Each structure stands twice: as C-alpha cells, then as structure tokens.
Amino acid sequence: MEKDTQEIESDELQKTGRKKRRKKKILIIVIVIAAVLLALLGIAYAVIHHYYAKSNYVQDGDVAVVTESELPQDVQEENSVDSMSEEARREAEEKALAAQKDVEFPNGDYVYNLLLIGSDRRDTSWYGNSDVMMLASINSKTKTIYLTSFMRDSYAIVGDTGAHKLNYAYALGGGPLLTETIENNYRINIDNYASADFTSTAQIVDLVGGVDIDLYQEECDYLTEQGVGDFPTAGTYHLNGEQAVAYGRIRYVGYYDYERTERQRRVMEQIFLKAKSLSLSELNTLANEILPLTTHNLSESEVISLVTQLPSIISYDLELGRVPYDGMFHSEGELLVPDWEATIAQLHATIYAEE
C-alpha cells in the first residue's frame, strides 16, 4: 500500500509540475503577444505623432478675429445684407435671435460633428471665403455619416457683428468663428473643424486616386473653358484633384449655388467611397498624408481616437443633405433666410437620429 501511495503522490507531483510548466508557457506567450501589440501601438503612435507634428494645429484662442474694416471692400459688400429691405432685416434678425434663445442644444454624445471647410485664400492678408462648408456628423447609433452642406448665401447672425451671409464668418474669424456661428444659429454642438484651401483639396483628391463624376454638357463646356482638361461630351469622367476642385466651384451653370453645393457633396461622396475600398494600413497612410494639408483644432489625442476608429467609421453609410432645406426658407435680396424653427428641427432630427 505504501508503494501505491508513493506512486500516486509521484504522479500528482508530476501532473502539478506539468501544469505549472503549461501555465508558465501560457504566461510567456501572453507576455510576448502583449509586448508585440504594445510595440505595434507604439509604432502606430510614433507614425501618427510624426505626421500630426507636421499638421497646422491652431488653438481657437490663437485665431484672431479681424474687424470688418480690415477686409477688402468687395468682400464686405458681397457679404452684407444691404440687398434686404429694412423691414425684412428687422424681422429676420428677430426670428434668428428668438431661435437662438428658445431652442436647446441637443444632448447627443453618440454623434461626433466635424466641420469641413474649403477656403478660397488667394490673398494671405485675410482668411478667405469659405466656399465649402460641410458638417460631417458621425452617428454611432445609426452607423451613418450625415454630410450636410451649408450654403454660403444663408442668412446668419455672425458674432457681435450682426447679420451677414454665413460665408462672412470665416472671412472675419477663420474656423473658430464659423464654427461658433453655425453652432449658435443652428443650435448644434460642433466638436472640431478642419479647413483646407483649394490647392490642398486638390492634393487630397489626388491622394485617393481621383474621382469619377457624371458631367452634363454645360458642365463639360465650362470645365473645358477653364483649361483644366478636354471634356467634349456629357458622360462619366475620371477627374484629378485640379479638375475636381474646378467642378466643385462651378456656380453659374445649372441652379447656381444650390447645384454647386450638390457638386461639392458628390466629390466628397466619391472620396468617401474611394476610402472605403482602402485597407487599414492604406487608411492610416491616407489620414497621415492628409493631416499636413489641413488647418484644424483637433488635439493629437482626438486624431489618434479618430484614426483608431477609421476601420469602423469607413463602413458607415453616407447620407447627403443641404441647409437651407427645400421649402424651409425664403429669399430676401441675395440672402437665403431659413425658417429657423423648422430648419433646426429637421437638422436635429437628421444628424441626431437614433435608429
């Protein structure tokens, strides 16, 4: 019996030893995997940090707001409300201010709002016109990116300067003032903004390999006249960056600014579709190459967060829209005056949808 007991004890000791060795091996494997993951994360962070350092990050407080008298005279005249009657001005301002006072900001932490700005800055003495103003609302509940264009001739209360065209906010105070103006007038929280001039925008289009756009004959004629290529007949064309920017800036073909914002959304949609086909490494490379081309107020941690979410975000649906909405505004001279209550309700219902 003693021998049997000793054998049993020996077997148990051997089993215990094997278990300890297995546990040790598993622990070593876990440590190795963790070390590899940490190394990869460290490399990814180093790459993002390298490119982020090249980008033009500007704190909101460092962006000066200029006085109207500092802007070119033609810019002041172009963005004024002088084309409105005195009565129309008074009524529009009362309704806009009432909306700002009465409508609450929605509580939607599941939506990330990024304002995308395309500026025409040929003269570096001022910020330029914001010819492109698009709000990209990334909704994690509906798995949808809502891309909403704001028309440049929309009526807006701009800071302490009173009523102007929405476009004027960027001319006076760059990205921060335009962000604040859209927030206050439309009662939405905008997390960050990113702006690029048209040269940088062309480079971004080229980075994704160009875009495929359907052109009708008048658009073909216009682009050919602009000298950006030969477009003899209507059809689908593969546009490079310079051509895509020229296409997005067409204003006096078709339905004026309404159609221009639609063209801009088409270009953005094509960029998004191109990005959806890229691999994770290609997406990271694209994000890192785009950063140096933009001026923005995203902190490094916010950029890292967005980059890590790219594989998920890029699979979201894309829904395009425009403000003012059809049937929810009226024209006063050269300005588009929204029906504030209906417009704000529609905008909130769209980008803060829960299903």
Automatic annotation (TrEMBL):
Keywords: Membrane, Transmembrane, Transmembrane helix. Gene3D superfamilies: LCP protein. The keyword Metal-binding does not apply. InterPro entries: LytR/CpsA/Psr_CW_biosynth, LytR_CpsA_psr. Residues 129-276 form the Cell envelope-related transcriptional attenuator domain. It comes from the Bacteria. Pfam families: LytR_cpsA_psr. The chain crosses the membrane at residues 26-48. The keyword Transmembrane applies. Belongs to the LytR/CpsA/Psr (LCP) family. This is LCP family protein.
